[in-house]
Design a protein that fits this description.
The complex is a heterodimer of chains A (436) and B (302). With 436 residues, chain A is an alpha/beta fold. Chain A is built from 17 helices and twelve strands. The longest helix of chain A has 18 residues. Chain B folds into two domains: 47 residues; 234 residues, MetI-like fold (Orthogonal Bundle). Chain B is 75% helix and 1% strand. The chains are: A alpha/beta (436), B mainly alpha (302).
Chain lengths: 436, 302
């Protein structure tokens, strides 16, 4: 009996995977029956994860679409991103498409792993949207085998957010940080630390987002261009990024944190002088109204020893996908009319939510060129939108997070004095065993 | 004579068969349920552990997954971490629980009910809720560090969550806090079943308190100690919530547990349920071996 019990407990791991999608079925079960037939009231279910951001954007789109298409009901359901991934995996594996939504938001880093692992589960949108209308770098992750599956949503364009008052105190101006390399950034960071006692940036040792931004700025990634073969050893951009990361950490200008709330807390409380990250942080920066006028956004620094590195990169960002279930045409049409082409809608997104889209035409709109008082009148949206167009297009492939977990460990070894070459070779070997 | 015997034996056996059948009938529902909901998935999981691939593209790869286990550095790390938790945490917790239960069983102690409740209370809290609170208590600028610094115990804050060594310590402290009270309850109930006259006799014979503890309490609690150590071992091998919520396996896999790795393989990375099932089965094998060893070491023939 005890042996039995032990085995049972272990098998729970797998059982929970199956049970997790059952609780959602009550919410979405009516969608399967109504979705297919045209003429009657159509229902479209959407899964997204951020109430203040992508859900808010979806709700806006829903409002706009409802004005012309009263016969379509759109249900936006909030799930945590991890839950969405679990439910998609569980649903697609078990083949029970009834529990799946019509439209789902997937992070760009993960998109290929879904598109390739579950072929035929997503609906190609070539007839509905034109891929060339969107920022180039968004097309790699959202398409597969020449077909466009995703409607690109937010730009994850990276910028360097800096505290102008701290810069001044250390004898610099914002211009000194325009178009710099990381080496110059570190020097300024040291000066600021010396004069003001403030750290230059925060880093979570578990999150190599900084490395990801650095290598994408040079058009490189963890994987070869095929999106499958690990490209860690002999990856010049990655080597440069590792060295730069170590220099930053060793310069004693980093406040070490371990989660999101500490990350936000650090700049809201004025503990750090800069934030190198994706533009989606703007809302959190502006949340601290007292710091109005003290911030500026400058282009992302480049890797000093990598010629291909440009002043534009990306962190995060996600896109909408239509599942290949009943109601897919209606869902695709909805996306086409809103996220796929509507320039005015994108202006609303910027003014109401602060979400910068990747539709190229939207950048000419009024909202994009408006100055932002919080950033001293800088036309931040226009700046970010122009950097978006320069982001090098890389194939994120299927294994970003698997490789990153290996690199996190090896980065610790590198920081503790192991040779860079050994570290990267080890990571390469491990990645080759893990990825197949 | 012969026929007589046979007839009675037939009648006897038919009664027995009937009784047996009724018995089987009563448990059949439970048996069928267990087969459908436990054995069948277990078998499926076993079959799954011989497959590999991404998402739905699973192919049979034979014992390739099991070979992969041995060359998988992350698995080795997860295994080592889990064993460190096991070797450090389980004995500490068992001893602490024993100690507390003997204290709380003492008749001289006032407010016993209050103390018992207080120590058992952690066991009723949600795993996720307490983990999140621990994460904030042990943050670099969290309460624990502030407390230690204000009483001059340390000069610089300890990196409870971002340092590989201290992160393990944090996890161990957390699990110990959560589960000590739970185990203590078992000891407490066992202690109350020990006849006081045995202690009286020992006292009359002049045995010291220590002698009484090791000569009477421990031997009489042995079955319970075995039970709690086996359940704690199993619990530690399945450690998941604390690691995910407090450290997310970090820094750099330093606190990754096997269950967390299974989760990552299934959901964080491009999902490979085949290999994840293989790792799950490795836990099964380890638990069986450990339970067997504990039975042997405890020397219980039953």
């Amino acid at each position: 009996m005890k042996k039995l019990l032990t085995i049972l407990l272990a098998s729970f791991m797998l059982l929970t995977a199956c049970s997790s999608n059952s609780d959602k079925s009550t919410n979405t079960s009516n969608e399967g029956t109504n979705g297919g037939s045209t003429g009657k009231k159509q229902e479209i279910t959407v899964w997204a994860w951020d109430k203040a951001f992508n859900i808010a954007a979806m709700e806006t789109a829903k409002g706009i679409y409802a004005q012309k298409n009263a016969d379509v009901t759109i249900n936006v359901i909030e799930n945590a991103q991890d839950d969405i991934i679990q439910k998609l995996n569980a649903g697609l594996n078990s083949g029970t498409t009834k529990t799946l939504p019509n439209i789902v938001l997937i992070e760009d880093y993960r998109a290929q792993s879904f598109l390739q692992a579950y072929p035929d589960s997503f609906f190609a949108l070539d007839e509905f949207i034109n891929a060339a209308d969107f920022a180039d770098y968004k097309i790699g992750p959202t398409s597969f085998e020449g077909k466009q599956y995703g409607v690109p949503f937010d730009s994850g364009v990276a910028g360097l957010y800096v505290r102008t008052d701290y810069l001044q105190e250390a004898g610099y101006t914002v211009d000194d940080l325009q178009d710099v390399t990381w080496d110059e950034y570190i020097e300024i960071g040291k000066a600021i630390k010396e004069k003001t006692g403030k750290d230059m940036l925060t880093q979570d040792p578990n999150d190599l987002g900084l490395i990801r931004m650095m290598i994408q700025s040079a058009g490189a990634w963890y994987l070869q261009e095929d999106g499958k073969t690990p490209f860690i050893a002999n990856n010049a951009a990655l080597e440069d990024a590792f060295n730069t990361y170590k220099n930053i950490m060793d310069a004693n200008i980093v406040k070490v944190i371990s989660d999101w709330s500490q990350f936000v807390g650090a700049f809201n409380s004025g503990d750090v002088a800069s934030i190198p990250t994706g533009n989606w942080i703007t809302a959190s920066v502006k949340a601290e109204a007292e710091q109005s006028g003290k911030w500026a956004i400058v282009p992302f620094p480049t890797l000093a020893n990598t010629a291909s590195s440009v002043h534009a990169s990306n962190l995060g960002g996600s896109s909408w996908y239509v599942m290949n279930v009943d109601g897919k045409e209606a869902a695709a049409d909805f996306l086409k009319e809103t996220f796929g082409s509507n320039v005015d809608f994108y202006q609303t997104l910027v003014t109401e939510i602060g979400a910068i889209g990747t539709l190229k035409a939207a950048a000419q709109g009024e909202a994009y060129t408006a100055p932002d008082e919080f950033f001293n009148g800088q036309t931040t949206i226009a700046d970010l939108a122009s950097w978006t167009e320069q982001i090098p297009n890389v194939n994120y492939g299927m294994h970003t997070y698997a490789v990153e977990d290996i690199l996190v460990v090896e980065m610790q070894n590198f920081m503790n004095g192991t040779e860079l070459e050994t570290v990267l070779n080890n990571a390469q070997t491990q990645a080759e065993t893990q990825i197949r | 004579m012969k026929t007589e015997v046979r007839r009675t034996s037939i009648r006897g056996s038919s009664i027995r068969t009937k009784a047996n059948l009724t018995g089987w009938l009563f448990i059949s529902l439970a048996v069928i349920m267990i087969v459908i909901f436990y054995f069948y998935p277990m078998l499926q999981a076993l079959l799954l552990s011989f497959k590999s691939g991404t998402g739905m593209n699973l192919d049979y790869v034979g014992i390739d997954n099991y070979k992969r286990l041995f060359s998988d550095k992350t698995f080795t790390t997860a295994l080592t971490n889990t064993f460190i938790y096991l070797i450090v945490q389980v004995p500490v917790m068992i001893i602490l629980a024993l100690f507390l239960s003997v204290l709380l069983n003492s008749r001289q102690l006032k407010f016993r009910g209050f103390f018992r409740t207080a120590i058992f209370l952690p066991a009723v809290t949600s795993l996720v809720a307490y983990s999140v609170i621990f994460k904030y208590l042990f943050a670099t600028d969290g309460m624990i560090n502030k407390l230690f610094m204000s009483i001059q115990l340390i000069q610089t804050p300890i990196e409870w969550i971002t340092d590989p060594f201290w992160a393990k310590v944090t996890i161990i402290i957390a699990i110990t806090w959560r589960w000590t009270g739970y185990n203590m309850i078992f000891y407490l109930s066992a202690l109350q079943n020990i006849d006081q006259s045995i202690y009286e006799a020992a006292r009359i014979d002049g045995a010291s308190a220590t002698r009484q503890f090791f000569g009477i309490t421990i031997p009489l609690l042995k079955p319970i100690i075995l039970f709690t150590s086996i359940t704690s071992t199993i619990g530690t091998l399945q450690l998941f919530d604390e690691v995910v919520n407090i450290t997310q396996g970090g820094p750099g896999n330093a606190t990754l547990s096997i269950s967390h790795y299974i989760y990552n393989l299934s959901f964080k990375y491009t999902s490979d349920f085949g290999y994840a099932a293989t790792v799950s089965y490795s836990i099964v094998v380890i638990i069986i071996i450990l339970a067997f060893l504990q039975f042997k070491l405890a020397g219980d023939k039953k």
